[in-house]
Input
Amino acid sequence: MSRLSAEEIVELFEKDISSRKRLAELLVVEPDIRLAIINAVIRDVATKEDIEKLRAATKEDIGKLEARINSLEMTTRRDFEGLKAELKSYIDEKVNSLNMRVSDLYGVVKASLITIVITLASTILVPLILRIIF
Output
């Protein structure tokens, strides 16, 4: 009679489902083995207390995240308001600069028109006056 190795025994149980079930039933009826199995399983099972601790930790983490999001939102709003004020100031400065340039241009055009009118008037009126006088 040949001796089976542990590896061969495991392979036989892997192939034979009914024998594997019978072995499990035999092991479970032994009080010491059953207690060892239960203790091993209990170590892997979460208790209500574990779940409650996890729930409380999750709520705390969510609360911290909400506070952080609110803080970031306020900071972002403040930054946008600052940018908006800077942009408004910049645009106002540029508009004022353009107003001054347009005003200067208006003055130049006005002076040019006056000069043109005087030149035209003198060109037309001087010969008329000279005719009237002489």
Summary: The two ends are 160 Å apart (CA to CA). The chain has a mean pLDDT of 92.
